[in-house]
């Protein structure tokens, strides 16, 4: 294939796809990288030679997973180091790409794709400079990378893990006009240095990878009044399946059960999101139960969290952790919240929360300019918006918004 | 396991009430129904005690049947700590 002649900024250097070094990869290869440049070099090799490839940040692969890959025929390659030969040999599958799921609900699974199935943006695009803050090899990372690889005028600025706290400065210096990140990623950027964030000339903001709540959409709209703000539901299994541009959390109810050629069909089974997608991974054609929980609120279908962890049973009454989280995050003094449950002898589980206050609330010790924001203030806020069993009973205040390499908080 | 004094437990109970916008009366004879101290409040108090002593408390609903006043709550938590 012909590689698009786009600009790539990585590790402080400016280059193009053609400038990236050849790695001389065996096939199949699992390339465990420490840097974004090595990950892109592996992609280039796949694009030119069809090498069967799995690329992932080295930190995501433990010894057990590495040996599993070797037993499945992969040579395990660390750029600059000696490759580990497979412990079992097989014929390579040309043009096959493998992605690992985030593993937030257990061990990461391997999902088969091709450059074709990962390339979901095909029409002519306005020229953009994309930020790429995602961990190499994740579905969201591939979305940005395939855009740059295949579409003219789509430059990328790669953010290494060590640069995540200062990305707005790097983005502003290189003229980033489009950025995609989790709600946690955006909350961190607002919390750490709002002034620096406002210097990034963003024409497109995308959110995904976690449930997207109205509060973060509204905050970003306030900071970037003319920017297009979208949220996407995507996963390694079903690809990019839901894209919403209207600035509201959730998607319109009338999108359910609509079928059109080459478009995903979205359904709900009980309270689980079910998607039939043309962008699915290998062997996942037909309806896929996503494991994500939804609630229908008026005319919108809202994704609240993972089915196996979102629902909290308090003495027989059920409440969604995602709904409670959204209520907390809608408080003007709350920058971020995580809602979980704790075992309680009397009622089974109790709703508890962790919260990071906004810089303003922390510096003045006050929310809305009047009452101090403490446990009682947030409990009171929730009590007027939630049933009594859904009100978090213990709220721990943290100093920093926690995030993993996946840019998620595991909310 | 560290043990909380009756005053400390009363203080935690006051924090539970305060978070609900209520005030814990001084009298141990105060009726729980009248002051609005419900099972969720009792559960929250248990979590706060667990956090203080660093250990989980184990009790069930039948054990709470005889609890009607503030003093009963304090007695019950005090007794739980000695089990």
How would you describe the overall organization of this protein?
Chain A is of the alpha/beta class and 411 residues long. Chain A has 12 helices and 23 strands. In chain A, 24% of the residues lie in helices and 30% in strands. The radius of gyration of chain A is 22 Å and the shape is globular. The two termini of chain A are 40 Å apart. With 83 residues, chain B is mainly α. In chain B, 55% of the residues lie in helices and 0% in strands. Chain B is built from 4 helices and no strands. Chain B is globular, with a radius of gyration of 12 Å. The model of chain B has no long low-confidence stretch (mean pLDDT 88). Classes of the chains: A alpha/beta (411), B mainly alpha (83). Chains A and B meet through β21 and α12 of A and α3 of B.
What does the average pLDDT of chain B come to?
Answer: 88
Largest interface: A-B, 19 and 20 residues
Q: Name the poorly predicted regions of chain A.
A: none
* Strand segment tally of chain A: 23
Mind telling me the C-alpha Rg of chain B?
12 Å
Number of E-type strands of chain B: 0
β-sheet strand percentage of chain A: 25-35%
For the sheet with most strands of chain A, the description reads: 8 strands, mixed
> Percent of residues of chain B in beta strands?
under 5%
Strand order of the largest sheet of chain A: 2-1-9-8-10-11-12-13
Principal-axis shape of chain B equals globular
What gyration radius of chain A follows from the Cα positions, in whole Å? Answer: 22 Å
Oligomer: heterodimer
Task: State the shape of chain A.
Answer: globular
Helix/strand/pairing class of chain B, anyone?
Answer: mainly alpha
End-to-end CA span of chain A:
40 Å
User: If helices are DSSP runs of H or I spanning 4 or more residues, what is the number of helices of chain B?
Assistant: 4
Number of helices of chain A: 12
Structural class of chain A: alpha/beta
Largest sheet of chain B: none
């Amino acid at each position: 294939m012909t590689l698009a002649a786009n600009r790539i900024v990585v590790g402080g250097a400016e280059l193009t796809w053609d400038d990236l070094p050849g790695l001389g990869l065996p096939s199949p290869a699992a390339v465990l990288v420490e840097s974004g440049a090595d990950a892109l070099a592996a992609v280039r090799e796949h694009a030119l030679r069809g090498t069967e490839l799995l690329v992932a940040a080295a930190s995501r692969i433990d010894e057990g997973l590495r040996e599993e890959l070797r037993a499945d025929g992969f040579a395990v390659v660390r750029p600059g180091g000696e490759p580990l030969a497979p412990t079992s040999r097989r014929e390579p599958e040309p043009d096959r790409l493998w992605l690992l799921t985030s593993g937030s609900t257990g061990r990461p699974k391997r999902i088969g794709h091709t450059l074709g199935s990962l390339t979901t943006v095909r029409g002519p695009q306005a020229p953009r400079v994309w930020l790429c803050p995602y961990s190499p090899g994740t579905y969201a990372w591939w979305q940005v990378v395939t855009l740059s690889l295949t579409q003219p005028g789509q430059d990328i600025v790669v953010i290494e893990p060590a640069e995540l706290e200062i990305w707005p400065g790097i983005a502003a210096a290189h003229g980033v006009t489009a950025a995609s990140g989790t709600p946690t990623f955006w909350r961190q950027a607002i919390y750490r240095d709002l002034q620096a964030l406002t210097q990034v000339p963003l024409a497109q903001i995308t959110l995904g990878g976690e449930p997207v709540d109205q509060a973060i959409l509204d905050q970003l709209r306030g900071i970037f009044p003319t920017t297009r703000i979208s949220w996407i539901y995507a996963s390694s299994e079903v690809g990019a399946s839901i894209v919403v541009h209207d600035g509201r959390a959730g998607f319109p109810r009338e999108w359910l059960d609509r079928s059109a050629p080459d478009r995903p069909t979205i359904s709900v089974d009980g309270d689980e999101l079910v998607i039939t997608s043309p962008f699915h991974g290998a062997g996942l054609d037909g309806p896929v139960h996503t494991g994500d929980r939804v609630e229908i609120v008026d005319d919108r279908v809202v994704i609240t969290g993972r089915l196996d962890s979102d629902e909290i049973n308090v003495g027989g009454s059920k409440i969604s952790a995602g709904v409670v989280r959204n209520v907390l995050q809608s408080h003007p003094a709350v920058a971020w919240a995580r809602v979980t449950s704790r075992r309680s002898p009397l009622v089974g589980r109790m709703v508890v929360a962790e919260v990071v206050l906004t810089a303003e609330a922390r510096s003045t010790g006050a929310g809305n300019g009047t009452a101090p924001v403490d446990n009682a203030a947030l409990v009171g806020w929730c009590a007027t918006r939630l049933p009594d069993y859904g009100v978090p009973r213990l709220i721990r205040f943290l100093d920093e918004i926690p995030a993993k390499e996946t840019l998620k908080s595991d909310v | 396991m560290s043990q909380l004094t009756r005053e400390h437990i009363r203080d935690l109970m006051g924090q539970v009430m305060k978070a609900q916008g209520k005030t814990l009366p001084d009298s141990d004879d105060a009726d729980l129904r009248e002051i609005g101290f419900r099972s969720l409040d009792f559960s929250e108090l248990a979590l706060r005690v667990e956090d203080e002593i660093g250990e989980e408390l184990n009790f069930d609903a039948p054990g709470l049947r005889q609890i009607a006043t503030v003093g009963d709550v304090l007695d019950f938590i005090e007794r739980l700590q000695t089990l």
